[in-house]
Amino acid sequence: MAEPLAKQPQAQEPSSFPEDKKDTVPSASSDTDDVETSGPINEKALLRKIDWHLLPAVGILYLLSFLDRSNVGNARVEGLADDLGMTGNQYLTGLTLYFVGYVIFEVPCNIILKRTTPRFWLPTLTILWGIVATLMGVVHNLAGFFAARFFLGVTESGLFPGVVYYFSMWYKRRERQYRISLFFGAAALAGSFGGILAFGIGHMKGIVWENGWHWIFILEGLATIVVAVAAYFFIHNYPSTASFITPSERTFILSRLSSDSDATHNEPFTWANVRLALLDPKCWLYGLSFHTMSLPLYTFSLFLPTIIKDLGYTAAIAQLLTIPPYAFAFITTLTIAVYSERLHKRALFIIASASFAIIGYIILLSNKDPKAKPGISYLGTFFAAGGIYPATALALSWPAINVSGQTKRAVANAMQISIGNCGAVLGTQLYRANDGPRYIVGHSFALGYLAGNIAVSSLLYYILSKENKRRDGITAEVQDIGDLTDWKGDEDSRWRFQY
Q: For 128, which DSSP code?
């Protein structure tokens, strides 16, 4: 990363987005480096400009990532398991192998990101998993399916933690959670799009192959490759080199980042900073927070088409009925993100969202005859989706706003996803072939994990609040971190945690 520019005097800062509703026009705007803005820079307008250049780009990549990992559930409804001769719970083994590859390569991928650039690494990952996703459409035996799922996990493993770290280099601490939630909202949109696409592509049965599941993988994988090639041109690097901001905007961004984060430090990669993350108990608790959400998250996204089909619906209708719960999840994710940002509360909204999802699983478990009363179980899926997605989004934002030290934060983000996806590994084995339509084991584990998330979130709330009070008795909270030459990261007593 290039040396930061000298800090310039800064006008009084307006209220942080999205709380500030005042809409003013910036004095000038440009997407090239050779045009200088005149007059004072409007911070809210500049934030909108950054959002429009960053969020849609990475959001599209994550939508494709979640679509390519979860469309296997739609393919199963279209005959995947029968065509590949799967017996018993071999389908579940294929799901598990995805997360094995994902967990193993999470931290290495973020180390590579730190040593390269987002513009190179994120599109390259996307091309690789797009190739694997496409090839999954031409597998003809169980071994091929297993291999494809494993390498899909390997190639997708670096995107989410990489983008979370990427955001930390653009946004102030209090602004990151809202953007991470918007980014994660693409997962819910992927569920809705997956249902629509699977419904349409399912009608391609008889073209080359007897069943249409082949085309689900092939068409969606090819779309990923096309978008990934374009991503080399629309993914930007860090503020010090991004071409869509002017020199004065660049100086202003680096100045505002230095007020509460280390994003303007020119921190070299060292293995000592990697060890700082590995030895910090809080980093492991952030991972456990996602661990307790990943099981319900991925069991829901991978098995929802099967759960709905087992209520007595045809494959085509089941694909369509997956759309409304995901749309509801997208709405609740954005709503909770806005209020959490405005009130500066994290743990309480995670606990409330997890509790909302628990209601959904109580409804699913209490319906003793789902085929006779499918509407009751279908209602339960709305509660589950509406709580799982916002709670996961908030849990995933914690290390991005609380871990200071660029390398430590990159590793902490990757640790969180790796630890978290161990829950997904377990979850893939819970919805067994003969457990439908009630799926008591799977639903019970999801409910238990959500209760575990409430416990972990409460523990983190206690630890972080207590540590802040201890540090208040030592020294005042630091201002202008970017100006400090003796900054030791979040272990410094001048740092305050957000909870």
A: H
The Cβ of residue 135 has, within 10 Å, a number of other Cβ atoms equal to: 17
Encoded tokens for 161: 């933690």
Structure tokens of 411? 């590793």
SS3 for 82?
A: helix
Q: Cα separation of 286 and 129, whole Å?
A: 27
Average pLDDT of the chain to the nearest whole number? 86
Say how far apart CA 333 and CA 394 lie, in whole Å. 9
- Which CATH superfamily includes the segment(s) 56-237+272-476? MFS general substrate transporter like domains (1.20.1250.20)
Q: Tell me if 80 sits within 8 A of 88, measured CB to CB.
A: no
Distance CA 253, CA 22 (A): 20
- Which SS3 state, helix, strand or coil, does residue 210 take? coil
Place of tokens 């779309």: 223
DSSP 481: G
For residue range 21-31, what is the model confidence (pLDDT) as tens digits? 333 333 333 33
- The answer to whether residues 336 and 394 touch, using CB atoms and an 8 Å cutoff, is yes
Distance, first Cα to last Cα, the chain: 30
Dihedral of the CA atoms 113, 118, 123, 128 (nearest 10)?
0
Q: List, in order, residues 6 or more apart from 140 with CB less than 8 Å away.
A: 84
What's the rounded Cα separation, in Å, for the pair 346 and 336?
10
Residues 6+ apart with CB under 8 A from 210: 79, 83
Rounded distance, CA 379 to CA 364, Å?
A: 8
pLDDT digits (tens, 9 = 90+) for 29-73: 333 333 333 457 888 999 999 999 999 999 999 999 999 998 999
This prediction has a pTM of: 0.82
CA gap 204, 216 in Å, rounded: 9
| Alpha helices in 169-280, H assignment, sequence order | 173-201, 213-234, 247-257, 271-278
